[in-house]
Amino acid sequence: xxxxxxxxxxxxxxxxxxxxxxxxxxxxxxxxxxxxxxxxxxxxxxxxxxxxxxxxxxxxxxxxxxxxxxxxxxxxxxxxxxxxxxxxxxxxxxxxxxxxxxxxxxxxxxx
Length: 111
Prior knowledge:
The protein is mainly alpha-helical. It has helices spanning 11-25, 31-37, 42-50, 57-67, 71-76, 88-96, 103-110.
């Protein structure tokens, strides 16, 4: 289990990391494909990146499974007993400086 770091991450930060993690470890998808895969709209996916609080647990469980991260971590971050995904602490520090996003944000910037 990875030690807990960066207390106070928002759901939006954990969601953005989960999408970034997904593209490198599970499957690469556009926001549209991801939204369809979790049964929600592309607009909902965009809102989750900015969210402080998570959506309902049932939705978080589907998101976590699709991204390959623990649902407890996605929902509660450091407040949960779930393991923090490898690389999250480093990614979060860079993300907060605006130097990295999830894979879909990078695609939008390069278009």
